[in-house]
Write a structure and sequence with these properties.
By secondary structure, this protein is an alpha+beta fold. It folds into two domains: about 1-30; about 30-160, no CATH class. Helix content is about 45%, strand content about 20%. The chain is built from six helices and five strands. A five-stranded antiparallel beta sheet has the order 1-2-3-5-4, sandwiched between helices.
Amino acid sequence: MTRIGKRSAGIAAAALAAVCLCTACGSGKEERLEGSLNDIMSGIYENADLSDDFRQSLENFETYELTDDMETAVLGTDDIEYTEGIVSMPMMSSVAYQCVLLRVDEDRVDTVKQQLKDSADLDKWVCVSAETMLIESRGDVIFYVMAENDTAYALNTAFQNY
């Protein structure tokens, strides 16, 4: 084999290895999350790197099944199709926060994520605003949080690692 032939073979082998590695990494994030949305939410809270203050405030949070009469207040619209949904939020607080998990048909995940993004209102709370909004997915589960930056990113990391 010539020097150029060996070099091309080496490059091809490296490219193939990179493709395999990327495929393996990418497939883990698209796996279907098993278990109830309540179990997933509990696992996210348990494993997130949250501030002590926020962790203490969790005592005043409730997790509700998302119902038709709550959709506009929580999702910003009632046009989103989902098979199951929950929202976690404080019962009473001056903190702008909500965390939503939706289970949707897998072929609608990107559409629903865009609908959530288009409908989000970081200023929907009285006298307070969320700093950021994150919308992520794994398989057929969409994670949607509006919160203070550190909290939102910590919860997102926990969701991605769940």
